[in-house]
Amino acid sequence: MLSYVVYIAGIWTYYVARQSVTKAFIWAYIPILLLLPDYYKAITPGIPDPSFNQAASVALFMVFVLKGMPGYRFSYTDIVVGVYAITVSFSEYLASGYSDAQNLMFYELSSVLFPYLFAKSLIEPFNLRYDFAKSVVLCLCVVFICNLYENKMGSNLWQLTIGRFFFPGQGDDWVTTFRFGLARASGPYGHCLVDGIIMVAAYRFQRWLQWSEAWPSKIKQLAWIPWFTPAQLFTLMILGGVLSTLGKGQWLAGIIAAGIVIIGRSKQRVAVMSAVIGAMIFVGIPLLLAFLNYASSGRINAADDNQETAAYRYELINVYMDVAKEHLWLGWGLMKWPVAPAFPSIDNHFLLTYLNHGVIVVGLLLGIIFIMMGRLIHHGMSQPFAEPRGSSLAFTLAAIFLMYLIAVATVAMMAQSCTLFFLVTGLSDAYLRTSIWDGSSGKENTQVTDTRRFRFHKVL
Question: Any idea where the domains of the chain sit in the sequence?
Fold first, then answer.
């Protein structure tokens, strides 16, 4: 019964949403998503067991629909995301039956489809891009502070407090791992690498906010800190959050993705883009070949832990590709493929998805990443140079997609990192449809939603 505390998140979100759906999304749903673990569930007989953010998601969606889905406009991306969620659910239903599959089906609705719809409907159409990004950044600053305790003490604060009192026995499988003599912080996300992905995404949002001059020069509550402006302080805190996870794959993904942001910050975008692409070709390909040679040596011949980890991920592909092909289209079902004893962990989200749900779902996921990234870069390149420098949201969102592409090749895209991915997808879809200018100077930073029924009204 103690686990029913989860429903308080839904009740609170519903209450705020009755007053304002947008406020409930920005200041209720997002903090619940990013500050409370997804692995704690309200064990409820007869219905799917919701987590905190799933309860909030359902409550917000109820009010969102009752109020006529404000801000929503259909787009083809809706079909892609909808088919993705349905295919995952159908795959699991075929593999396990409804009774076992209901929680995953509920997850695909409450943690994938609903957040996507919220982001595309409630951010850009209501000019709330800064509020959304600020909510993400402020929540991750709180997580960073808690991460410092885990780095030092080796214990997760969420498990010591919320888990111990309300969810005994839940989340015990998530343990703190160590690297360089320090505990790798996982925050409320179960795994340090999931925390790393979310922190890198938040870092990109924070740098965009800083370059856009979206933070005030002084915040009353932070006036006692003389050395940094609020924007600089938040940037350092989020960077500290990235470092606290000690995830080299996420660090590398963030560094590579920064190349896209560099294009957006330059007035010579074509030249810089050519240089970035050239660097990826002439530097990236030799590095990739060197890495493959490094990883293909095998774990037995590995010189150190780093090479052994790389070899493990390399060998995964060879071991499981043939297994995945046996259930090519819809997969084996969630974690139901035959496990090779020497490879119990699938540290590659695309391979894991292929095994679980088949090639259709993998294709849809890769399609979302590459098509969105391409559309965002094309949009950013076609717009006038954004002032202040770096305030183009297009390049920031494209960089987040590239970061996800690289990072989840080394870890599963699970829990809140999956939900954040679809929030970014929804925001990107609405941004590409409604944005006419980037920048924060005066009224230039506007997003226009055309509510008129017929476009020829513009001509008249």
Answer: 76-459
Which range, 43-52, 102-111, 198-207, 265-274, has the best average confidence (pLDDT)?
198-207
What pLDDT does residue 109 have?
95
Q: Hey, CA dihedral for 111, 117, 118, 123, is it positive or negative?
A: positive
Cβ distance 31 to 16 under 8 Å?
Answer: no
- CA distances for 32 relative to 14, 52, 55, 56, 311, angstroms: 13, 7, 10, 7, 38
Q: Please report where in the chains the tokens 């791992």 appear, as a residue.
A: 177
On whether the CB atoms of residues 32 and 56 are closer than 8 A, the answer is yes
Angle at 446 between CA 138 and CA 23, to 5 degrees: 40
- Residue 128's CB is within 10 A of a number of other CB atoms, namely 20
Q: Tell me the one-letter amino acid at 56.
A: A
Dist. CA 265–CA 256, nearest whole Å:
15
CB proximity list for 111: less than 8 A, separation 6 or greater: 38, 53, 54, 57, 418, 419, 422
Decide which of 88 and 276 is more confident. Answer: 88
Interatomic CA distance for residues 418 and 460, integer angstroms? 45
d(C-alpha 279, C-alpha 52), whole Å: 44
What is the rounded CA–CA span in Å between residue 158 and residue 5? 15
SS3 of residue 179 by DSSP: strand
What is the Cα–Cα distance from 308 to 297, expressed in whole angstroms?
Answer: 9
Residue that has been written with the tokens 């943690």 in this structure: 111
Q: Whole-angstrom Cα distance, residue 29 to residue 110?
A: 12
CA distance 128 to 30: 13
